[in-house]
Write a structure and sequence with these properties.
The protein is of the alpha+beta class. It has helices at about 10-20, 35-40, 50-60, 70-75, 80-85, 95-100, 105-115, 125-135, 160-170, 235-255, 290-295, 300-310, 385-400; strands at about 1-5, 25-30, 40-45, 65-70, 90, 120-125, 140-145, 150-155, 175-180, 185-195, 200, 205, 210, 215-220, 225, 260-270, 275-280, 320-330, 355-360, 360-365, 365-370, 375-380. The chain has 4 domains: about 1-95, Rossmann fold (3-Layer(aba) Sandwich), CATH 3.40.50; about 120-180, ATP-grasp fold, A domain (Dna Ligase, domain 1), CATH 3.30.1490.20; about 185-310, D-amino Acid Aminotransferase, Chain A, domain 1; about 320-400, Glycinamide Ribonucleotide Synthetase, Chain A, domain 4, CATH 3.90.600. Helix 1 (about 10-20) runs parallel beside helix 11, helix 3 packs across helix 5 (about 80-85) and helix 8 (about 125-135) runs antiparallel to helix 9. The chain binds adenosine monophosphate and glycine (GLY). Adenosine monophosphate binds near residues 140, 154, 180, 183 and 266.
């Protein structure tokens, strides 16, 4: 198979690493890729959000399967354009990608599919939203659209909620707002590879979204993740697959929007059972990094089967033990990440069982320098959590750049 992978982050670097081990791969191209991916695979400098450019590249290269990493190209209709040309693509059409692009629409789909989720109300009138928020008290305020991790405020009081309504209402993504019942419990990322009807659950993973140890500090895109997260037993997992993933796929297909790609359910494990906080239309970042290392399967035929609507496999083989991914972030992340800090240590090979997946990195006069908030993910696979953590952290210390930030507690409490 000739495969084109779209994206430039650590998630895509990890996907490329896994896909390139496939027995069915002829050649892998990445677009645009990053300096880490460039070392091993051909990278093409196109705009992954431009459907015409992606289609032209796929036709020129004779691509058999396009794998889309991030949500932005999906929302721009890249998968729609490729499918119109008869090119197989792992990633949903823009219509189904709305499950991530519009929280109000996602809620409507969940309600129709009877997916367990927090109670919510949708507002387009800011004054009405503010009044309701003040009366509600502790409530979660969400902007409907994509807001780069800045679209959700978990408010402790009515006054704080009203303030959040005013702030989020100013965002382009906040023309429609949701007020949502505040839930409690540990969070879990459950991702399914879907063919429009059938699905294959990846092992549950857990992200760490706050910047600092002990879940303190501001929200980020994710500071690290581990898998498998031992928070649901196989029977519970099977049930969540049915009630959340399968029910949603059925509802989307009933609406003529079949979902072919990775459906990501952000769950909260409440005392009343698992409930969906959000859906994403793609694999998670950083969850994908440990997930790729934990899989003991040839991933490429599974992605191709999903793209073709012909997924037959129902279980995934995993490696023994666990995988832990630690994100190394730039100085000033998440508010104002500093670019241009020279990265040292990558020239020395990583220890066995460790991969370094690059993200916010660019080449500058032959050296690698920081060029984004999340710079790279150090990911380790080992026969136990303790060993995987120790290995990931030993390697994290070997990578040096000014202002490096990382959490010391990724996967420290996998039972919580
Ligand atoms: P979201 O982008 O919807 O996943 O929200 C971002 C974060 O806000 C989640 O990871 C949760 O930590 C928190 N959050 C979202 N919805 C709720 C809710 N209904 N109750 C409590 N916390 C929530
Ligand atoms: N790790 C959360 C996300 O990918 O959205």
């Amino acid at each position: 198979m000739k495969v084109l992978l779209l994206g430039a982050g650590a998630r895509e670097h990890a996907l490329a690493w896994k896909i390139s081990q496939s027995r069915e791969l002829w050649k892998l191209w990445c677009a645009p890729g990053n300096p880490g991916m460039e070392q091993r695979w051909a990278c093409k400098a196109i705009d992954p959000c431009n459907p015409a450019q992606v289609c032209e590249l796929a036709l020129t290269l004779g691509i058999d399967l396009v794998v889309v990493g991030p949500e932005a190209p999906l929302m721009c209709g890249v998968a729609d354009a490729l499918r119109k040309l008869g090119i197989a693509v792992f990633g949903p059409d823009a219509g189904a990608a709305r499950i991530e692009g519009s929280k109000a629409w996602a809620k409507e789909v969940m309600s129709a599919a009877r997916v367990p989720t927090a109670r919510s109300e949708v507002f387009t009138d800011l004054a009405a939203a503010e009044a309701r928020a003040r009366a509600w008290g502790p409530v979660v305020v969400k902007a409907d659209g994509l807001a780069a991790g800045k679209g959700v405020v978990v408010a402790d009081s009515g006054e704080e909620a009203a303030q959040a309504v005013r702030a989020l209402g100013k965002l382009p993504a906040g023309a429609t707002l949701l007020l949502e019942e505040r839930l409690t419990g540990p969070e879990l990322s459950l991702i399914a590879l879907c063919d429009g009807e059938r699905y294959l659950l990846l092992p549950p993973a857990q992200d760490h979204k706050r910047l600092l140890d002990g879940d303190q500090g501001p929200n980020t895109g994710g500071m690290g993740a581990y898998a498998p997260a031992p928070l649901l037993n196989p029977v519970q997992l099977e049930e969540v697959g049915r009630l959340v993933i399968s029910a949603t796929l059925l509802e989307l297909s009933r609406r003529q929007q079949p979902f072919r790609g990775a459906l990501f359910a952000g769950l909260m494990l409440t005392p009343q059972g698992p409930k969906v906080l959000e859906f994403n239309c793609r694999l998670g970042d950083p969850e994908t990094q440990p997930l790729m290392m934990q899989l003991d399967e040839d991933l490429l035929p599974l992605l191709a089967a999903c793209a073709a609507g012909k997924l037959t496999q129902t279980k995934l083989k995993l490696k023994a033990g666990a995988s832990v991914g630690v994100v190394l972030a730039a100085h000033g992340y998440p508010d104002a990440p500093r670019a241009g800090d020279r990265i040292e240590g990558l020239e020395v090979p990583a220890a066995p069982g460790v991969e370094r997946f690059l993200a916010g990195v660019r080449k500058d006069a032959g050296a690698l320098v920081t060029a984004g908030g999340r710079v790279l993910t150090i990911c380790a696979q080992a026969p136990s959590f303790e060993a995987a953590r120790a290995l990931a952290y030993a390697e994290a210390e070997k990578i040096r750049f000014a202002g490096k930030q990382y959490r010391r507690d990724i996967g420290a409490h996998p039972a919580i």
